[in-house]
Amino acid sequence: MIAKLALLLIVSTLLSTPLVTKQWQDSDLDGVPDLKDACAATPPNRVVDAKGCDKALLNKRGPMLSILPDLCLRTSDGKRYPAACSKLSSISVKFGFAQADILPSQEQTIEVIARWLKSTRVSIQLVGHTDSIGDASFNLQLSLKRAEQVKKVFVEQFGFAADRFQINGVGSSLPVANNQTAFGREQNRRVEFLVIVQ
User: Is the dihedral of CA 140, 104, 88, 193 positive or negative?
Assistant: First the structure.
C-alpha cells in the first residue's frame, strides 16, 4: 500500500512538473515570472518593480521624468513630427484577441507616450486597428473601442484634456503584418498615434 502511494505521488509530481515550470518561467530573466510580468521584454540588467517593469521608466515622480523619449510620429497629413526626424518610431498599444481592455504589458508603452505628450503641445489622433479575423462591422467597432480605451487612460490616469485626442477606428483595413500568422495578427491588434496637423 505504501509503495503504491509512493508511486502515485512520484507520477503526479512528474506530470505536474511542466505546469509548475511554465508557471515560473522567466523569459527576460528579470526575476519576475512570465505569468506575473507586465513588461515581458525588459532589457537585461534593469531594476524592475514587482510587476517586472523598468523602475526608471515607470517612476512618474522621480528624476527620470526629465529624460524624454525621442519619438518620431506620423502626422495626420502623412508627414513626420518633428519634421526633422528621419526614422519613424514603431510604438503602438497592443491588444488581446477580440479585446479592447488595456493589457498590463502595455502600461510601459502608454507611460512613454504620456511623458512625451507632457513635453509637447500637440494633439493626437488615436487610430484603432484589428486583425482580419471576424466580421468587418464587428472589427470596425472593436477598433474604435480600442482607441476609446487608450484615450480614457490618458484622460483619467494622466490628467490630459479629453479634447487633445481624436479617436478613429479602421478595423482590419490597414494591417502592418501578415494576418495569416498568429504573430502577424498580434501585431495588427493595435492603437497607433498620429500627430494632428492644425
Answer: positive
